Amino acid sequence: MSESEIFSPTFAPTTRGEPVASEGTGTRIVLIGIAIAFLALFLVLPLIAVFTQAFSKGIEAFLAAFREPDAWSAIRLTLTVAAIAVPFNVVFGLAASWAIAKFEFSGKALLITLIDLPFSVSPVVSGLIYVLLFGSQGLFGTWLMDHGIQILFALPGIVLATVFVTFPFVARELIPLMQEQGSSEEEAALTLGASGLHAFRTVTLPNIRWGLLYSVLLCNARAMGEFGAVSVVSGHIRGLTNTIPLHVEILYNEYNFVASFAVATLLAVLALITLVLKSILEWRFAGELAHGRAH
Amino acid sequence: MAKTPRRTWTFRRPSVIPGFGLSFGYTLTCLGLIVLLPLAGLVAKASGLGISGIWEVATDPRVSSALRISFGVSAVAALVASSFGFLVAWVLTRYDFPGRKLVDAAVDLPFALPTAVAGIALASLYAPDGFLGAPLARLGIQAAYTPVGIFIAMVFIGLPFAVRTVQPLIAEIDKEIEEASATLGASRFATLTKVVLPPLIPAVLTGFAMAFARGVGEYGSIIFIAGNLPYVSEIAPLLIVIKLSEFDYGGAAAIATIMLGISFLTLLAINLIQAWSRRRFGYV
Amino acid sequence: MKNGAVRKRAFGLSMLVGASLLTCLVPARAETALLNVSYDPTRELYRDINTVFAEEWKAKTGEAITVRASHGGSGAQARTVIDGVDADVVTLGIPSDIDAIAKLTHKIPDDWRTKLPNEATPYTSTVVFLVRKGNPKGVKDWADLTKPDVKVITPNPKTSAGGRWNFLAAWGYAYGQDKDAAKADAFVGQIYKNVPVLDTGARGSTVTFAQRGLGDVLPTWENEAYLVLQEFGAEKFDIVSPPTSIYAEPPVALVAANTERKGTTKAAQAYLDFLYSDRAQAIFAKHHYRPIRREAAAPADLAQLPEIKLFKIEEYQGSWDEIQKRNFDAGGLFDRLSRAGR
Fold first, then answer.
1. Does one domain contain both A34 and A92?
2. Is residue A81 domain-shared with residue A195, that is, in the same domain?
3. Do the domain assignments include residue A19?
4. Which residues pair with C309 in a beta bridge?
5. Radius of gyration (C-alpha) of chain B in whole angstroms
6. Cβ within 8 Å, pair C84-A236
7. Yes or no, beta carbons of C339 and B228 under 8 Å apart
8. Where would I find the ABC transmembrane type-1 domain in this sequence (chain A) (predicted)?
9. Which terminus in chain C has less CB density within 10 A, N or C?
10. Which of residues 36-55 of C touch A (CB under 8 A)?
11. Which of A199, A262, A223, A233 is nearest to A89 (CA)?
């Protein structure tokens, strides 16, 4: 099952101008209107709401949210988690796509499905599985406690849950990309006497660099924004195990709505930056990205 | 893991490219440790209840109603997301209009925006005194704290999947066939329904399945807007959290296993759709 | 060159990972830190208590101490302790949640209620009604919550201690009328028919009622009701104190197994003892909790807490084990009511 067939990256704009067969101008305008109205209602308004709520009591109240040391420790924790989870998934994605794209073996479809699985698992379940494993009532709970190892309600647990929910991101972008590119270039390099590692560095990596960056962007956005899975394993300890999304929830529950939305704007800005960079990549390097079915 | 590439030499086709053992082994190890082992732990925990125990949990009125709400609302939301998603994808690939690229970029917003942020934003918009909630309330529709709220949140998170699965295929449609159909005298409507749309159906279905799967599992954006009332607006993931708060690990694991089974089935369905489409249309 | 860039990025990434691993492996913590796992509405209270305690501890021992707090629905919080949160003390909303920790993990001795004065309850509270300004629906007493046109906002008793106290208060009120348990069950069922939103924690319910404008009455912790007046404006809401309500006991306990392992027993015990001190008692009153030693509190604060006839639910339903089982465990009264009421 060659996944590359799914969506080959012909994302370049179709030839425009006046196609013979198309809808009339009136229909077009109506359809464009409906589409834009729908998107504005469902997507853009919530984003605007975040910013209007954040600034509803003025810039001073907005800034006050960032004078809290707890906000900074949440930001620090989120950055730390992303700094571990994203590189991990990059290495995994490179390995998985190399194995899957460059070789033919049986059971490949199953392997791809299993890598995909975390996409469709509820975030709550993603957190729960680690509670069942590492909680003190869990499978390894007693052993961990006897050895004084804290996984849940500490950095390792949060990282694990984040790695789980972002697990397919890099792999699913790189697999179709590498499949499209085939292995002839690598084979040529190898025939010319390059070592495998050298071929990977000089041939494969340059070919997939934009796709890799693209997937890192999306993986990072999800890693920093994950709420459900992290909330199950975090323990909500102020200043210690609160990530930015959890801090947003805590402030919200403290009736500190302005601060809550203010901190939320951090994540919203992150989302916007991600979208901008992603769009730039799509427009400039469309040919070097795979448009996998799941981003 | 017992699955390290012990059968490597028989089950893979020989290749001059090195690194299969390393990359394949590493992939399986990570997959095993991060995904499979924990999921197996979950299933093991649930199977402690036995099939009858899981069945009992699943048929408990509150659980079955939460599952019904999660799956039912998600199905409706996925339907709406994929219909409008199709429209959006069509408009974005076929028509040129000012700001098209901006709109195109905006489609991925729900994907990049953390769910908790989406949740508080949607709740503040659709609350009875909110920007959209107030006019809706005058029409007699209460959005927040009802299944309608769940629906809105699910459409929000499902939309990018619905758009992005069909968009590349619309871009690939061979215009000559369309033009041929038009030249041969078919009406625009007939051309669309008989020539253009059929090959797109698998992609639409895939988008639907993905939006559905995401909606069923969604938690963060929904709990802020749902109302969380048993039998009315309580979703299955929330019930897992509630079961945990009641220290009922078995029950939580049982609901999670049921949801896991269904997500696996959804993934399987997606794969089957694609296999079918490959046979029927020669591509996915 | 491209190659160099990639390598440089990989190098940067690994530096970042390394640095972040270092920061988490070497916590800058030369001082003692305590973790207090508490329930939802005590956020403001323990912020004050923790600051004052740290000052006193510093003055007494010369050591710096940080008390961290975590808050959430009482049941959810108990669950995190059961699953291994390194709590030194728990200050939860209802005795049965601490019982659950003791029973499931043995990290707390079974007889924890005898370890501290007043059954390990440094302050008490009760349930009052928060209504919209002018009390348009005329809610005066528990019976008014059963009127069909009164929408009641209350948290889920399965997850929230406040939700359980509300539930038990309503039941106790009805039972107090004519000592008929079946009638009391039906009375509570009548109230829950009027509940449009069931949040997981007391805070969620307050936000729904106060911020989102849903419902006519919010039965809630007395302290929470006063906090709403403070935070959302006294011009929007009124507090109605029913003539009778429940004697709510949010208890505290030392998580002995954790403190022994961490070597924080002395500090954690001092923290709990501090809750019974004059200063802490005065802080409780300031935050509208009912101190157990009224003489320590400022008279102005006490004057705000009206005379309400308070009953203890144990007198009607027996031990906390039985209370939990009868009402909230799977198949208990709440489950039966929500099944019937859907």
1. no
2. yes
3. no
4. C244
5. 23
6. no
7. no
8. 75-278
9. N
10. 40, 43-44
11. A223
User: Does A256 lie in the same domain as A143?
Assistant: yes
Q: Which CATH architecture has domain B54-281?
A: Orthogonal Bundle (1.10)
Q: In Å, how far is B6's CA from the nearest CA of chain A?
A: 13
In a domain, A10, yes or no: no
Hey, what domains does chain C have and what are their CATH numbers? 32-121+250-276 (3.40.190.10), 125-248+308-341 (3.40.190.10)
Contact A164/B at CB under 8 A: yes
Cβ of A27: how many Cβ atoms within 10 Å?
12
d(CA C119, CA C65): 27
- With DSSP H G I counted as helix, E B as strand and the rest as coil, what are the percentages for chain C, rounded to 5? 55, 15, 30
Write down the number of H helices and E strands in chain C: 16, 11
Indicate if A100 and A182 belong to the same structural domain.
yes
Smallest CA–CA distance, residue A236 to chain C, in Å, is: 6
Same domain, A249 and A182: yes
| pTM for the model | 0.86
The end-to-end CA distance of chain B, in Å, is 34
Same domain, A222 and A81: yes
Query: CB distance C211–A255 less than 8 Å?
Result: yes
Q: Are residues A122 and A255 in the same domain?
A: yes
Please name the helix (run of DSSP H) or strand (run of DSSP E) that holds residue C219, with its range, or none: strand C217-221
The answer to whether position A39 is within a domain reads yes
Residues on chain C touching B229 (C-beta within 8 angstroms): 195-198
Contact A79 C20 (CB under 8 A): yes
Rounded distance between C-alpha atoms, residue B180 and residue B189, angstroms: 14
CA A107/CA A8 separation, integer angstroms? 23
Residues 6+ apart with CB under 8 A from C149: C137
C-alpha A291/C-alpha B13 separation (Å) is 27
Residue of chain B with shortest Cα separation from A273: B112
Q: Which domain holds residue A34?
A: 24-55
Which CATH number is A237's domain given?
Answer: 1.10.3720.10
Out of B37, B90, B260, closest to residue A125 by CB:
B260
What would the pLDDT profile of A168-208 be if each residue is shown by its tens digit?
999 988 998 998 888 888 888 998 888 888 989 999 999 89
Q: Does residue A62 belong to any structural domain of this protein?
A: no
Which tokens sit at C69? 């707090």
Cβ within 8 Å of residue C258, ≥6 positions away: C86, C87, C88, C107, C264
Q: Are residues A38 and A82 in the same domain?
A: no
Six-digit token pair at C17? 């990972």
* A183 in Cβ contact with A97 (< 8 Å): no
Tally of domains within chain A: 2
Please tell me whether residue A237 adopts helix, strand or coil conformation. strand
Per-residue pLDDT of chain B (284 residues; tens, 9 = 90+): 444 545 444 677 778 788 899 999 999 999 999 999 999 999 999 998 888 989 988 888 889 999 999 999 999 999 999 999 999 999 999 898 998 989 999 999 998 899 999 999 999 999 888 899 999 989 988 888 889 999 999 999 999 999 999 998 888 887 788 888 888 888 888 888 888 888 888 889 989 999 999 999 999 999 888 877 778 888 999 999 888 888 889 999 999 999 998 888 888 888 788 888 878 776 55
Point out the residue among C79, C196, C214 whose CB comes nearest to the CB of B245.
C79
